[in-house]
Design goal:
The chain is mostly beta strands and 127 residues long. 0% of the residues lie in helices and 51% in strands. The strands form two sheets. Strands 2, 4, 5, 6, 9, 10 and 11 form a seven-stranded mixed β-sheet that branches. The protein has a four-stranded antiparallel β-sheet with strand order 1-3-8-7, with no helix packed on it.
């Protein structure tokens, strides 16, 4: 079973930046798509970004396009979420997750298709 550990969250002013990291255990990281999700207080968990196993394809939710970037370093078993121009509405617990499918060629926003999750890291954006 893969273990995912997020880091990099914190408190930042609106307009600031943070880079989240998600380190994965095991030797199969490079064969699976990865995603970032978030959950704000009192709200459902929602998709933020995803990247294919090779890194050749990514997809972002509309509200973060142009501000957030997802990337991965398969040599380091790590996926990143670079967040720029942060807004108070980005405040949430951010989770990384591994897709259940081996070397799928498309990204998916459906969190039901992700079967390994990290513990989450808090991101708070003050106005």
């Amino acid at each position: 079973q893969v273990q995912l550990v997020e880091s990099g969250g914190g408190l930042v002013q609106a307009g600031g930046s943070l880079r989240l990291s998600c380190a994965a255990s095991g030797r199969t990281f490079s064969s699976y798509a990865m995603g970032w999700f978030r959950q704000a207080p009192g709200k459902e968990r929602e998709f933020v970004a995803a990247i294919t196993w090779s890194g050749s394809s990514t997809y972002m939710r509309d509200s973060v396009k142009g501000r957030f970037t997802i990337s991965r370093d398969n040599a380091k078993n790590t996926v990143y979420l670079q967040m720029n121009s942060l807004k108070p509405e980005d405040t949430a617990v951010y989770y990384c997750a591994r897709h259940r499918g081996w070397q799928i060629v498309h990204v998916t926003t459906n969190q039901e298709e992700y079967n390994s999750w990290g513990q989450g890291t808090q991101v708070t954006v003050s106005s």
